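Journal club prep — side note

Before the paper discussion, L.F. wants everyone to see what a predicted structure for a comparable chain looks like in token form. Sequence:
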Amino acid sequence: MKNLGLIMMPNCEALGTKVERYLQEKYHVEESLQINLICNRFQNGEGKVRILDSVRDKDLYILTDVGNHGMTYSMYGKEHEMSPDEHYQDLKRVISACSGKASRITVIMPLLYQSRQHKRRGRESLDCALALQELERLGVSNILTFDCHDPNVANAVPNMSFENIYPTKTMVQALEHIHHPYVISPDMGAMERARHYAEMLGSKTGVFYKRRDLTQVIQGKNPILEHVYLGSSVKGKDVIVVDDMIASGTSMIEVAKELRNRGARKIVLCATFALFTEGTKAFEDAYHHHVFDQLYTTNLSYLPDCIKKQKWCQRVDFSGVIGEVIDTLSRHDSLQTLEVTK
């Protein structure tokens, strides 16, 4: 216990505080586990980090949410919203301030930085692999992430521990009130995730195939022409549509519309990370028109308060899961005992 230290990046304080409280209750202590720090920025936007407490021989766990777009700073007299790139730079600053002093550094990054740029075609950058290799060079021992877009990115750092925590068990517990649902994957890439949900729920699965226009590229992607459903009839059934991430949410809503047209009784959307990159108006309209009944997501990434208050949005707390993972690793036990890595 004395050697365990939590570093909560400013972008992850709410979740970090819950994790600390969980560990304090588990260990029956009142003393803080937090290592305090200051993240400053000069007026030209350059950053600086200072660790306020000793980290000598500590087993450090750094919690960060690189997707937190609710943080701002002043640059040249104007308010500037922080991007994932800037959050990642601050993380590297914290690691460099601790390197050579801490006994072990574990980075807990639920939303893996650049996880959607995990492979490349032609002359594209390979950002996720490069970032992981950079963290390894800085002295990080372990990376913990949740529902990675492609867990095979771990191949970029074969000599560093990379743990992909699956949210399935905790999410299924939140969905237990839905009896005998069909689990639907919105595309072929999410089929394995849907299968995990279906196995735990003891239900059937279905999948949508995205037929794209390969002659055009809009916003970096070939536009979707049609969502083609492959699976059993959903008429009169409750369905759960599962994915790792909601960005704009367009595909998820289109899938929900198609399921409703096919006679689905109750439609629940489920995503580990709800980013809403284009706002929530489309979801508000879809909910108002009974396209879907509820959306379940986690508290592993930032959501503005205005979205948290929406009737259709339910957040599942994962602070206990992170607390259990930290406790297990600090005792040098296997995460397989928690059943969160499969």
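L.F.'s comment for the group: Residues 171 and 316 are 7 Å apart (CA to CA). Keep this in mind when we get to the figures.
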